[in-house]
Amino acid sequence: MLCHVDEHDLDPDPLVALRAWLSDAEGVSARPDAMTLATATADGRPSARVVLLRGLDARGLVFFTNRTSRKSKELAENPRAAIVLHWPELGRQVRVEGAVEPVSGAESRAYWETRPRESRIAAWASPQSRPIGDRGELERLYNAKAERFGDDIPLPGFWGGYRVVPDAVELWAHRENRLHDRIRYERTPTGWRRERLAP
Ligand SMILES: Cc1cc2nc3c(=O)[nH]c(=O)nc-3n(C[C@H](O)[C@H](O)[C@H](O)COP(=O)(O)O)c2cc1C
Predict the structure, then answer these.
(1) Is the CB of 115 under 6 A from ligand 1?
(2) Cα(175) to centroid(ligand 1), Å
(3) Does the Cβ of 36 fall within 6 Å of ligand 1?
(4) What is the pLDDT of residue 64?
(5) Disulfide: which of 25, 76, 181, 195 matches 173 by Cβ 3.0-4.6 Å?
(6) Which pLDDT band, with edges at 50, 70 and 90, does 196 fall under?
(7) Is the CB of 62 under 6 A from ligand 1?
(8) What is the mean pLDDT of residues 21-25?
């Protein structure tokens, strides 16, 4: 199922348009909420990895992670990111660029409460992005945390969400003749401006 894009059918707010595309991808894509997140060091060395989109509203896109991870260190020194979502089943891609800010403790806690026990223990156990000896060490760390906590597993101080606040969003749709559709939105002081880009 490939879907073309006519800018007149797209919402003038790209976050509303993105929400509509996400719901089109649900049930079609195995992992509609998987997004590639690119960050960079202060001197501009990029790195990218997949994270899950866990919040989307007028403010931006939220993901959750370990705040001592490589991505978090890069965001601390260079608080900007780029995101790519790709749904090959729909022939669609979305690119987002923007500033990144940590979400509030309350927002992180609200999401934390929805995570299964195993995921919470794993978050406590894993020194994300740091070298560890072997698989056994990871499992020992996990078991130690599983023993330490009962059913009430608190939000770790080193874990939480980030919000990417978009200043540019591009919606891309495949076309058979390679003349793909690209609609780019840019935030201006008076609202979103939209233009079509050559593919
Ligand atoms: C489908 C998928 C979803 C993932 N979701 C997350 C996520 O939501 N948060 C996270 O910290 N890592 C997630 N990861 C793992 C990251 O890709 C990455 O390995 C990890 O965050 C460490 O990245 P860093 O060392 O660059 O900080 C996911 C990986 C995959 C393949």
Answers:
(1) no
(2) 31
(3) no
(4) 98
(5) 181
(6) very high
(7) no
(8) 97
